[in-house]
Amino acid sequence: MYSHTAVDTRNIITIKGSVDIVSDFFFTAINSILYQRGIYQPETFKRESKYGLTVLTTTDPGLTTYLASIMGQMETWLLQGNVQRLVVVVTGVDSGETLERWQFNVTVEDGAGIGSAGTVGDENNAFAPNRRSGGGGGNGKVQCRKSVREIHNEIQAIIRQVTASVTFLPLLNEPCSFDLLVYTDKDAVVPRKWEDSDPRYIMNSQEVKLRSFTTSVHKVDSMVTYKEADEWDI
Description:
It contains three helices and eleven strands, in the order βαββαββββαββββ. It is α+β, with helices and mostly antiparallel strands. It has a five-stranded antiparallel beta sheet. Strands 1-7 form a two-stranded antiparallel sheet. The protein has a two-stranded antiparallel ribbon with strand order 2-3. A hairpin with a 2-residue loop joins strand 2 and strand 3.
């Protein structure tokens, strides 16, 4: 007689699988912010189905290439456990002021088997476009406490909040640009194409915490900080 143990592989996630989910979320969130805040013209976005939602993805060739490069680097950093947070900074072109900071904090869950990251980085030690490390990667598997569908539902809630941000964020009354800041461990190696950056803080700001999601390997907490409309020179 043979005995068999059934394993529900739907609830087992590899470190690489978690990295793919987090990286794809970052890509989708950045696109949603750029569309909702009018950083790029709406006709330069296409509609796609993801996370049970219709999301907007850029068709601008330059932006597509840029984001693909950044996400490729981010996957390497996430595998090493070096990424602490990603910040999308919205800046007024005319004023040069930081108007919004969309912050996504990344922590590594206990028992995930990745590096030593997971602590909140020094707010005065940002890099734009940033660092990677040459440490060991991870092909390990982690027993996930939820299904991929549940993870996607959590991500869906965050994307919905980004979409709804137009209801509480002040109007951007000047042309705006964006920058990406990535916070990493201090011992991570900085690629030549990346440079040090200040944190791009907003004085007299308001903060709205958004939802979070976890893959059981990585946890991502989200928030947006913005400059109040009555502080602007309109």
